[in-house]
Request: fold
Amino acid sequence: MTSKQHQALKVTIAFTPWLISMYTLYWLEYGEIWTNETAHRGKISVAILAVGMGLSFLIHSRFAKREQK
Amino acid sequence: MGVELQVALKNKAINKWRLFWLISIPMSIIMVIAMIGADMSTGPGVSTMIQFSVRWAVPFIFLVVAASSVQTLFPGAFPMWWLHNRKYIGMCFAVAMAWQGLFIFMMSNFFREYYFADVYLLRDELEGSIGYIFLPGMVVTSFHFGRKHLNPKQWKVLHKSGIYFLWAYPFSVYWWNLFYYENPEPIDYVYYWSGFLAFTLRIAAWGKERQQAAKSNAPESNTPLAFKVLGGAIIAFGLFVSASGLDWQEPVTAFLTAPKWSANLELWLPFWPFEPYLSLFVIGLGAMLVTKTRA
Reply:
């Protein structure tokens, strides 16, 4: 695997939790698992996104740290 | 004149926290006055305030995006003042966004029915929420107590991603206002072209730095004429693309979202399939060619 491919793979892995969090919200809405009346819907949405973004950030940091070593 | 400007720009009243208060206090007073004038007991009234507050926020994020590029391209007293105060200009953006956040909170909590019937769209909510997650992270890590928890690389990743995302959102909104919705307002043109200019300056600054780095590594190197001509033509095409969205948006969107997987991504992936940014991508490609050197 070339270094560019390796880098692309790392970026893809790092972005995965963020993508999953967005897809989860899509799935909840289009699968009609939650409705407009669902309690605390806004807060739960932000929490799901924040967890996804936070995990992506941590994975990216982990890769960057390993690269430095 | 130059010396006078330098002295004027060193005035404490227009630097750092005083600059922040100088902008954010009048801005907040105007916001309160506008609130008194708007009918805050109705969904449309709150919706007006959401739009009003975002129009205050957008210029500040464009100024933040352009700050370092202007200093790279046109070094001088004013660009240096601009760059030195970038953090405080960013804080003014955060204040305007906090007002908008308050109005969004009011809308989604007190006018839920109106919100879901007339305002809500999943992808818009995703884009907006992501921006609002970046923003407090960036504000907190702009101070020592927050910054000490991140290493320099993490700080850079957080702030660069956040700034680009917070630029990308309003830029795409004004692009769609101009090239998709009917009857754009004059301010939509001003904001679209300001956002475009802010990012184009970044591309130009990147090109200049790239060329300077190549020259310092190999002083004899230069860009072949063919690259210059081709790169210039690609940049000119990018500029044409940036101004002619009305002519190509519909067929290009149809083409890019023709596969089922792409049409599906459009429902939840922010900005997909990136129509507003195609012109900037083309200009970036041209800049890459124009600044490609050979020994």
